[in-house]
Amino acid sequence: MSNSSITEEKLVPLLQELIRNKCVNTGHPDSGQEIKSAKTLRRFFNDHGIKSEILEAHPGRANLLARIPGTDPGAPTLCFMNHMDVVPANESQWSVDPFGGDLRGGFVWGRGAVDMLNTTASQAVAFAMLAQEKKNFPGDLLFLAVADEEASGRLGARWLTEHHWDKIKSDYMITELGGFFLNNTNEQNITITTGEKGIAWTRIQVKGEAGHGSLPYNTHNTAYVIGEALQRLSSYKPKLELTREYCDMVAALHLPKKEQQKLTKKATLMKSIKHLAQTDEGTARFLHAASQMTISPNVVEVGKKINIIPDHGSIELDIRILPGQTVETVLAELTRALGNIAKQFEIEILEYFPSNTSPLDTPLYQATCELIGAVYPLACPVPFFIGSVTDGRFFRKKGTIVYGFSLFHDELTLSEYARRLHGKNERISVKSLELSCNYFYKLPEIFFNKTHLSDNM
Predict the structure, then answer these.
(1) What are phi and psi of 125, to 5 degrees?
(2) DSSP symbols for 195-232
(3) What pLDDT, on a 0 to 100 scale, did the predictor assign at position 457?
(4) CA–CA–CA angle 175, 32, 37 (5° rounding)
(5) Do 314 and 270 sit in the same domain of this protein?
(6) What are phi and psi of 7, to 5 degrees?
(7) Which pLDDT tens digit goes with each residue over 198-208?
(8) Do 186 and 165 reside in the same domain of the chain?
(9) Distance CA 160, CA 165 (A)
(10) Distance between alpha carbon 281 and the CA centroid of its chain, in Å?
């Protein structure tokens, strides 16, 4: 591969077109319209002699699948997965057109440049090069671009695993979210996402009695109950859990031994995270999320009219759970958090999905570490356990080993990624695009070689 020519002729133009397609997912079934980007990718693959298939769960909500067949039906399957939808952008806050796909200052700018159209483009170009060069691997290599990731995957990965598993079945998968550098030490700590917390989105509701706003004496105003609940949730400290996933993260950070010890003792953990945040807020926030259930009250509704005492109030809570935590765990924790006002609330679990992880001792993890070392010899791979969720969870549920990773330039630290993610002036460097594309191009050969060696041991 000639990095400069491929980047200039294929990679950057493809990413720009994906950004300009403006596949904005608001959560409404008719939004997104990923069919635009699915057609872009199908045309790109057609130009390289690759057949692809579009699968729609809802009109315009397209998923695209392409395959390079393997030579051995018994060999494992590797899948490149990405998503084509993006979140909305407030254009007034941007210094460029968020859907212009501008190339300036060595960066491609636009909504989705980081999350995750850079990977979509990099995987597609690498996949096309491998197909064009007629690379022969033992197992199938799949390219899967999905819809609706930004709204829980109901019309994308979830739908595909439930209705088209025979077509997309994969033993191993590489997808988002990883490859970011931690700047907590002078060493190059680079993240490989190996697992994620679960979700338990919950609504709590309280009922009162309506009345005229001019006569508030001796009434049951639900606004006060909601306010008290918010105050208690704000001051509540969930139980700390030193899971294997959390301890693996801390061990891989190569912090001073005393700092590691403080981060792995419940008595000193929170104080140590606060200290770490002074120099590396990104890492501190991820360690905080990985060490406990988190409860974030993000939607509050109470009252409809200024002169009516509200008779109903609700809070929608984004609750993220650790391995082993269940619906029963969530209910017990909420009851503890609300204390003596808990009985006033009706609690409804809106959506639940358990925490999920993949093991580290696999050919795909080893191949990724080898490719990291080839570019960053001093880098230390960090198995990362994230607080957010990805489409990889639907595949882990089916038994697929899933990692989140792209190889980026070291300017993309975790803190910098967090600033760009769903934020203004989202952008990705051309250097990162080149590194990612090379990673996906080289990964299959190293991975399949390692699976072959493993089978023969």
Answers:
(1) -65, -45
(2) EE-EEEEEEEEEE---EETT--TT---HHHHHHHHHHH
(3) 47
(4) 65
(5) yes
(6) -60, -45
(7) 999 999 999 98
(8) yes
(9) 6
(10) 19
Of 328, 353, 378, which marks where a domain is finished? Answer: 353
> Would you place residue 49 in the very low, low, confident or very high pLDDT band (cuts 50, 70, 90)?
very high
34: buried, middle or exposed (CB in 10 Å: 19+, 13-18, 0-12)? buried
Task: State mean pLDDT over 264-272.
Answer: 93
| Ramachandran category for residue 196: left, alpha or beta (phi over 0 → left; psi -120 to 50 → alpha) | beta
What the block records as the tokens of 44 is 């790109």
Give pLDDT, residue 355.
95
Q: Is the pLDDT of residue 3 over 80?
A: no
Residue type, 127: F
Residues 154, 223: one domain?
Answer: no
Q: Which domain holds residue 262?
A: 197-353
Query: Do 169 and 201 have their domain in common?
Result: no
> Where residue 224 sits, what CATH number does that domain have?
3.30.70.360
Whether residues 93 and 162 share a domain: the answer is yes
Angle (nearest 5°) at CA 157 between 382 and 421: 50
pLDDT, tens digit (0-9, with 9 covering 90-100), for 351-361: 999 999 999 99
Q: Which of 300, 321, 353 is the last residue of a domain?
A: 353
Residue 67: name the closest of 171, 157, 163, 139 by CA. 139
pLDDT computed for residue 2 by the predictor: 45
**Which among 386, 415, 417 has a CA at the least distance from the CA of 402?**
386
- What does the block give as tokens for 349? 């679990």
The answer on 430 and 406 residing in a single domain is yes
Q: Do 349 and 371 belong to one domain?
A: no
DSSP class of residue 117 equals I
- Give residue 370's pLDDT: 96
Of the candidates 121, 164, 150, 112, the residue with the CA atom closest to the CA atom of residue 31: 150
pLDDT tens digits, one per residue of 62-94: 999 999 999 999 999 999 999 999 999 999 999
| CA 372 to chain CA centroid, nearest Å | 20
Q: Are strands 356-357 and 189-196 parallel, antiparallel or unpaired?
A: antiparallel
Picking from 390, 441, 449, the residue whose alpha carbon sits closest to that of residue 143 is: 441
CA distance 319 to 339: 18
Which backbone phi and psi does 140 adopt, to 5 degrees? Answer: -65, 145
118: helix, strand or coil: helix
- The answer, yes or no, to whether residue 98 has pLDDT greater than 60, is yes
Q: How far is CA 392 from CA 158, 163, 355, 401, in A?
A: 10, 16, 11, 9
Per-residue confidence (pLDDT) for residue 332, from 0 to 100: 94
Listed as own residue / partner, the contacts of 230-234 with beta carbons closer than 8 Å and 24 or more positions apart are: 230/297, 230/300, 230/315, 232/337, 232/338, 232/339, 232/341, 233/295, 233/297, 233/315, 233/317, 233/337, 233/338
* CA–centroid distance for 33 within its chain: 20
